[in-house]
């Protein structure tokens, strides 16, 4: 008898929870893969431009040829 | 993840100069305490070490604020920071007696003399380093923290 009451209460509780909580969708509402591809494309497009490489090379060359500039940079930067 | 944008901007901004402090402190300890380099570097090193990382953090907060609703390149933003730092360092150096100007150039710590052409070259190198640091390192940190 007691077992039947417990089962009944448990069933009611389960139904109550089901009706109260919003349904969880296992599938996303939209296809996420195109956005992922777009992000990957953006990441690939962000290659370092030649100008920045040239700037880095020029700065390194200047420091190599005139190392007296290094203490000045350490002081100011 | 739009909360605390400016706190995250500050945190992203201070990373590079804080790591740079390790290099600066290592150079200082090696030169002054181990090699006994006869130049009073400590007179000029403390204040920049305190203010530069905070200035980078504040500069990144300003960047996050400026780029709201408009295009503002982070490389250009970083390039402008030495425009602020250079006069501050110059005035501080003059006040502390570690920097002297002559008709021929600038002398640092009474030991490193640069004529104006080389000094200007140094300024341009410094600005280009700031441009690259901000464009690639600070921007990457901003992306990691979700504020790029």
Features:
heterodimer; A: 77 residues; mainly alpha; 73% helix; elongated; B: 148 residues; three-stranded antiparallel β-sheet; 4 helices; 3 strands; 72% helix; globular
Please tell me about this protein's structure.
The complex is a heterodimer of chains A (77) and B (148). Chain A has 77 residues and is mostly helical. Chain A has a domain at 50-77. Chain A has 4 helices and no strands. Chain A has helices spanning 2-20, 33-45, 50-65, 69-76. The model of chain A has no long low-confidence stretch (mean pLDDT 81). Chain B has 148 residues and is mainly alpha-helical. Chain B has one domain (5-144). Chain B contains 4 helices and 3 strands, in the order αααβββα. Chain B has a 3-stranded antiparallel β-sheet. In chain B, helix 3 packs across helix 4 (116-144). The mean pLDDT of chain B is 85. Chain A binds chain B through residues 48, 52, 55-56, 58-59, 62-63, 66, 68-69, 71-77, and chain B through 20, 24, 27, 44, 48, 52, 82, 85-86, 89-90, 93, 98-99, 106, 108-109, 112-114, 118-119, 121-122, 125-126, 128-132, 135-136.
How many strand elements of chain A?
0
| Large-scale geometry of chain A | elongated
Counted beta strands of chain B:
3
Q: Largest sheet of chain A, if any? A: none
- The dominant shape of chain B is globular
Mean pLDDT of chain B: 85
Write the layout of secondary structure elements.
The complex is a heterodimer of chains A (77) and B (148).
Chain A: H1 2-20, H2 33-45, H3 50-65, H4 69-76
Chain B: H1 5-34, H2 42-66, H3 74-96, E1 99-101, E2 105-108, E3 112-115, H4 116-144
Antiparallel strand pairs in B: 1-2, 2-3
Helix pairs in contact in B: 1-2, 1-4, 2-3, 3-4
Can you summarize this structure?
Chain A has 77 residues and is mostly helical.
